[in-house]
User: Which sequence fits this backbone?
């Protein structure tokens, strides 16, 4: 009976246990991060189970039942973040979610400039993920202040929360030791690794215990498709260079990662850096020890090297990224400035004291080449040079064709009258010559009459020609004036009229389009 | 493109022609009665044709002696003055005004004094006189030196009808020779 009661108790405890989920959510470029709604939806019913609002520092905490959840971060004026597409989160233990920064909707890109620069093309041509990776590395090394890192010293946050994460009950979340908190640098748990489909796990280890250099360097490695697995055996103990355990690693499809042998038997470094990444999830199973910092790291002024992009399988002991860096003044593993493409985990190292604005990278695409400025005078000058040119210049093609047609008609009439003039003139000369040389009075009279008729024709053709020339001139001037009227306003370009804007979201690796319509 | 160029070229030529004035109507044939009257020479008249001659020096030219708009003429006495220093008389031939079945009777007196006196009489088969405009003589000259010289009629010229009645000559034309 006791066993039955105990079993029921255990079963009830298991079934209806609640866990604490906390984390940080930030607003881009804001100091007040309050008001972000973190919504937990049940994976089974897709109904809102719980929701919580962030505090000023972006921190939130909520008690939820052990279950699978979709989590959505929402706030007006910001792009919502939804990790639903990449799976669910099963909370079976107290869990600290990785921090997320919401992009402001006003941080947009001029769509026309974007199109002009053919960003879409460049995106594919320029090995875009690697570019972003470099950019984030730069941002991380230049923009993040030590204090900011210090705020992110809560390394209990599991790495890579965007993929489906399963936190098993009684699994201790990643955490840092108190000694790590005293460090000026954040502990190195912020390892962002992206593992794609069919990617075998990398087992990176190092033997840097005896090294004077950090064991986990920020190695941003990108493995291309079907690439041979890199072997990052950490036998660099005698090396002055850091071994490559802090890998910001992007594994492409069908990439088999190296199972780097861990030669850490003689090393104090535990083999927790071994990670098997066969799925794009990070799963903390029961009895799984989270990555933690050893006390020995506390004496280091630099963060230890636990920034591994790691996937933890069930019953996998998370890396204890402690190192024997007591005497090491160099960082063991700084937070790699890492940008990952799809399903990437942001290298956020949420601290409970402040945001990490550098986690959000918004790429703006702007035109390098300024569009040519069109002016009314430019249109008029062109139309003065040739009718209709100014209208074409002002994108008034129909008007341009119209003015050209009008001028061609006027010119044609001038030419026609010139032809008549020329004929009459020639006739006049012929008749007049005959008249002057004739001695027969009858023929003299005849030629004289013909000469007079020809002369009248000359005058008529001349008058018509002058009239048509005047009309052509008026048309020419009118066309120039019209070109000035319909000409573009100085300094205005067509791009200014396009209300479409585009923003790039690094978390989802997608572009977001917005349309703004001024109502005033 | 070629057509467009041609069109523009024609347009420019037309504009150039537009700038020109219409040629002035000049009717100055000495045998044109209207023109002669407009110039103040009434008919019947004696005229030179052509009345303006431009030649080179030593070049031979012919000038005709015309009766303009005369009626019933049967005989004529023509007295012409010329600049003997500039013009050299070459020959005198009868005209066509008195020609009929037989050539007209004519004779001339030239005394190298710059005067030519001509006499002619009409012998018609069916009529005794002629009317209208016609030439009595054609005279050949050569320009001996350059310069402008004139041919003029003396006022004592006479036209007579078959009854020897004098016909009033109301106008006398003048000829100009411009030797270069």
Assistant:
């Amino acid at each position: 009976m006791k066993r039955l009661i105990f079993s029921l108790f255990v079963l009830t405890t298991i079934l209806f246990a609640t866990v604490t989920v906390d984390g940080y959510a930030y607003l881009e470029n804001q100091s007040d991060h309050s008001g972000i709604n973190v919504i937990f939806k049940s994976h089974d019913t897709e109904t809102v189970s719980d929701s919580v609002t962030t505090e000023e520092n972006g921190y939130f905490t909520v008690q939820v039942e052990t279950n699978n959840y979709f989590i959505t971060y929402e706030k007006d004026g910001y792009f919502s973040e939804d990790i639903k597409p990449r799976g669910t989160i099963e909370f079976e233990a107290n869990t600290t979610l990785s921090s997320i920064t919401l992009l402001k909707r006003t941080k947009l890109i001029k769509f026309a400039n974007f199109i002009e620069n053919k960003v879409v093309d460049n995106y594919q041509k320029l090995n875009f993920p690697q570019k972003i990776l470099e950019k984030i590395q730069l941002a991380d090394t230049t923009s993040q202040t030590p204090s900011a890192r210090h705020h992110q010293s809560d390394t209990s946050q599991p790495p890579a929360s965007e993929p489906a994460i399963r936190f098993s009950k009684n699994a201790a979340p990643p955490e840092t030791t108190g000694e790590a908190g005293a460090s000026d640098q954040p502990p190195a748990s912020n390892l962002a690794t992206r593992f794609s489909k069919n990617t075998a796990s990398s087992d990176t280890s190092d033997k840097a215990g005896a090294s004077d250099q950090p064991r986990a360097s920020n190695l941003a490695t990108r493995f291309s498709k079907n690439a041979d697995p890199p072997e990052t055996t950490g036998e660099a103990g005698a090396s002055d260079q850091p071994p490559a355990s802090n890998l910001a690693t992007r594994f492409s499809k069908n990439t088999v990662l190296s199972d780097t042998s861990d030669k850490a038997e003689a090393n104090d470094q535990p083999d927790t850096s071994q990670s098997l990444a066969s799925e794009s999830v990070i799963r903390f199973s029961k009895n799984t020890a989270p990555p933690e910092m050893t006390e020995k790291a506390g004496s280091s002024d630099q963060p230890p090297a636990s920034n591994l992009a790691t996937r933890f399988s069930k019953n996998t002991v998370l890396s204890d990224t402690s190192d024997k860096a007591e005497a090491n003044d160099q960082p063991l593993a700084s937070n790699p400035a890492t940008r990952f493409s799809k399903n990437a985990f942001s290298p956020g190292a949420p601290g409970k004291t402040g945001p990490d604005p550098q986690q959000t990278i918004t790429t703006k695409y702007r035109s390098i080449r300024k569009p040519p400025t069109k002016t009314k005078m430019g249109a008029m000058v062109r139309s003065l040079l040739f009718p209709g040119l100014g209208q074409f210049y002002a994108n008034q093609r129909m008007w341009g064709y119209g003015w050209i047609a009008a001028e061609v008609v006027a010119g044609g009439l001038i030419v026609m009258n010139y032809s008549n003039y020329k004929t009459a003139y020639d006739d006049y000369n012929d008749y007049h010559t005959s008249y002057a040389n004739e001695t027969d009075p009858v023929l003299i009279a005849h030629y004289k009459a013909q000469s007079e008729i020809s002369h009248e024709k000359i005058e008529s053709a001349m008058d018509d020609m002058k009239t048509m020339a005047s009309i052509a001139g008026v048309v020419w001037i009118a066309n120039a004036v019209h070109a000035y009227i319909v000409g573009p306003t100085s300094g205005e370009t067509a791009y200014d009229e396009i209300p479409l804007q585009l923003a790039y979201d690094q978390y989802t690796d997608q572009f977001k389009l917005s349309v703004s319509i001024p109502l005033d | 493109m070629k057509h467009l160029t041609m069109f523009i070229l024609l347009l420019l030529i037309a504009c150039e022609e537009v700038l020109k004035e219409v040629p002035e109507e000049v009717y100055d044939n000495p045998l044109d009665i209207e023109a002669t009257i407009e110039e103040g020479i009434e008919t019947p008249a004696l005229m030179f044709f052509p009345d303006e001659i431009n030649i080179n020096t030593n070049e031979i030219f012919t000038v005709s002696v015309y009766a303009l708009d005369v009626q019933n003429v049967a005989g004529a006495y023509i007295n012409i003055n010329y600049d003997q220093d500039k013009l050299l008389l070459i020959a005198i031939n009868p005209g066509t005004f008195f020609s009929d079945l037989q050539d007209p009777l004519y004779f001339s007196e030239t005394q190298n004094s710059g005067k030519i006196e001509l006499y002619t009489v009409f012998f018609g088969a069916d009529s005794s006189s002629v009317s209208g405009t016609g030439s009595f003589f054609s005279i050949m000259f050569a320009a001996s030196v350059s310069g402008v010289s004139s041919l003029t009629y003396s006022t004592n010229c006479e036209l007579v009808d078959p009854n020897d009645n004098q016909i009033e000559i109301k106008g006398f034309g003048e000829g100009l020779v411009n030797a270069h």
Confidence is low (pLDDT under 50) at residues 142-368 of chain A. The interface with chain B takes residues 408, 411, 414-415, 417-418, 421-422, 425, 428-429, 432, 435-436, 438-439, 441, 444-445, 448, 451-452, 455, 458-459, 462, 465-466, 469 of chain A (CB under 8 Å).
